[in-house]
């Protein structure tokens, strides 16, 4: 038995969701010592994790009505994921409890400014990859203003079938977003990922990824060519993250670049998810593309300057503070100083 029928989603009631994500959730076990390998870490923090869970949290932190379609195990960590989602204002009604596989956990090491190795414990599979079409409330999928899916969900069955069923139900409705989030450990080969991404691109209206992910998706790493290739594949808005060079976004009639926003990095993991949640918020608000990217860049920078992911997602006030030249982490000064002192001492 793969899922508990008592967790089948209820019919959508109340106002439609603004953001519905579909994909990975789990538990992040992050070291509380910075600049050392896991073998030398003595204490850890436990946080909600998974890229699509983080995007939903980031959107909710900015005031959007958000929910996630995902799976968790019938175990204490699964109960923790659901509890944490609710505490972070993400609706958990579409979370399926799987009675066969355990809720996944992810460990990382933190070596600022740019080295954050990850270890995924989710073998032979994880509940979020076992969500079947019969587990999904397609009325909610059709009704939500923005649907966010991740390429990782295309990597195995039955998740792949479920993702394409969601795309079919959306029928290219505005703001059907594909995160090009390519993680090699989920795929047999890059070519396998390319095949599935190219199958999905004609069904989405927005695609977002970094240069390496664009290479897997459309065979291009040069940002202009990558954006053009994504548009040619059928998307209406292509967003290419360029790392220290900022972000490029293109439509058929508009081209916008947004420079990076300097901030002292602590842990870069989750920055892309924060960018994604802010992107959702800006698109739904109808902002000009330049403002959408500027705020998303700031949101990503703030999370990169903090230890964890989900609970580090910024508020609108914190984003505005950074854009105005202030310090969004002023209230975290003591804990940040302790972490940076650990790095400096080594």
Gist?
The chain has 346 residues and is of the alpha/beta class.
| Helix percent band | 25-40%
Low-confidence stretches: 5-9
Shape: globular
Topology as a string of helices (H) and strands (E): EEEHEHEEEEHEHEHEHHEEEHHHH
The termini sit apart by 50 Å
Assess the beta-strand content as a share of residues.
Answer: 15-25%
What is the averaged pLDDT score?
93
Radius of gyration (CA) equals 19 Å
Total helical segments: 11
Describe the protein's architecture and organization.
The longest helix is centred in the last third of the chain and has 16 residues, at 289-304. Helix 8 (271-285) packs antiparallel against helix 9 (289-304) and helix 9 (289-304) packs across helix 10 (316-323). The chain is α/β, with parallel strands linked by helices. The protein is 35% helix and 19% strand. Strands 1, 4, 5, 6, 9, 10, 11, 12, 13 and 14 form a 10-stranded mixed β-sheet that branches.
């Amino acid at each position: 038995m793969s899922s508990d029928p008592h967790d089948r989603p209820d019919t959508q009631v109340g106002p439609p969701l603004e953001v519905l994500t579909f994909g990975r959730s789990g538990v992040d076990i992050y070291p509380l010592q910075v600049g050392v390998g896991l073998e030398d870490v003595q204490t850890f923090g436990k946080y909600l994790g998974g890229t699509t869970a983080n995007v939903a949290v980031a959107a909710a932190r900015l005031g959007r009505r958000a929910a996630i379609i995902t799976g968790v195990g019938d175990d204490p960590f699964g109960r923790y994921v659901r509890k944490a989602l609710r505490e972070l204002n993400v609706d958990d009604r579409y979370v399926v409890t799987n009675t066969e596989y355990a809720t996944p956990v992810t460990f990382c090491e933190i070596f600022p400014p740019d080295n954050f190795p990850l270890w995924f414990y989710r073998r032979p599979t994880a509940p979020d990859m076992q969500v079947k079409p019969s587990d999904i409330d397609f009325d909610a999928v059709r009704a939500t203003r923005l649907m966010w899916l991740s390429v990782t969900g295309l990597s195995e069955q039955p998740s792949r079938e479920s993702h394409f069923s969601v795309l079919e139900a959306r029928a290219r409705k505005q703001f059907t977003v594909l995160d090009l989030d390519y993680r090699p450990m989920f795929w047999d080969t890059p070519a396998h990922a390319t095949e599935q991404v190219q199958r999905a691109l004609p069904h989405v209206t927005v695609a977002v990824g970094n240069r390496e992910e664009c290479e897997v998706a459309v065979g291009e790493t040069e940002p202009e060519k990558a954006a053009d290739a994504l548009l040619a594949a059928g998307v209406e808005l292509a967003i290419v993250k360029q790392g220290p060079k900022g972000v490029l976004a293109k439509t058929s009639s508009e081209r916008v670049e947004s420079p990076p926003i300097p901030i002292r990095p602590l842990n870069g993991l989750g920055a892309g998810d924060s960018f994604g949640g802010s992107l959702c918020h800006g698109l739904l608000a109808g902002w000009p593309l330049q403002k959408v990217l500027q705020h998303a860049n700031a949101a990503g920078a703030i999370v990169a300057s903090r230890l964890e992911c989900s609970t580090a997602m910024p508020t609108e006030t914190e984003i505005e503070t950074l854009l105005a030249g202030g310090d969004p982490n002023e209230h975290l000064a003591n804990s940040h100083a302790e972490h940076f002192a650990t790095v400096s001492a080594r």
